[in-house]
Amino acid sequence: MRRRVVIAALAALVVGLVPARSAEAARIKDIASVEGVRGNQLTGYGVVVGLDGTGDGQQSIFTVQSILSMLRRRGVQVTVDPRQVRVKNAAAVVVTATLPPFARSGSRVDVQISSIGDAKSLRGGTLVMTPLFGGDQQVYAVAQGGVSLGGGYSASAPGAEAQSGHPTVGVITGGALVEREVPVMLGADGLVRLSLHEADVTTAMRVASVVNGFLGNGAASTRDPGTVEVRLEPTASQEQVMALLAGIETLNVQPDRRARVIVNERTGTVIMGEDVRIAPVGIAHGALQVTVKVDLGVSQPAPFSEGQTVVVPDSTVQVQEGAAERLNLFKGGVSLRDLVNGLNALGITPQDLIAVLQAIKSAGALDADLEIM
Q: Do residues 287 and 342 both lie within one domain?
């Protein structure tokens, strides 16, 4: 008993010593989710028909096989070689959807249609009834309906082609009808677990402290940096559990986030959080410009000579190095604003900024996680 009291006192001391930030607090429902309450991914294979000659070509043999199988199931006996059948008004597609939690039989969900053959466009097509399977290979929904591309189009003619958007991917709003429900029992073992979207020890301790302040001491505890357990009354009904979760979700907590720098080298995008700090470091930046110019000239031989007229390239290479920049010293604990202002003063581009940040991280002077996409 004494050990539990000591641990609780230390936990309260840790939470109290963590300084609160000036930023606004977030609701628990925005930074955590109830364990077991999640969506389930569904997939299926189907055929889109009614296309205006923009469907799969003869190379997509599986499309023809699917159509022939569908006709046989409908009582139409077709005995032909699938390789000799050309069906340009149909396209084989993969249908994907997410079954939301607590979806009931008869509910409708949106589906996405993606071509898997060589179809040019799915515009104007209709998806034939397609069963959607879950990870357990059970049918949870059935999709069917007209495909919408959201404004995309594709048109071609001999020697010319025009395209807008992505015409081989479409959606059907409310196109799937739920046939099987996924049972979810909250608090079946007497516990409700809150899963943090980003695991963090400090945030988990703060969530447990806020919940204990709402329900009473001992109601919530941290299982690990990403999970907070809330104990329920043994006789609590599902209605009482829902009322309890409704109250917990609206509680405000100040999350603690790691300092992070996100770098996308393909687009030259750099995003830094407000907690990014750098240790004392000196930075120098110079500019090097290389210009290569090629002019094509013609060498004309003298009259009545046996020479040939040839094209002679005239290449010029210019290398210009900018004035040497002075070494800039950043003091320890520099904030994000000071860091950006200092780097902008060097006149560097986003691509150069990425190189500078990588060098600072390699020098061990960047107090943040550097993630390169």
A: yes
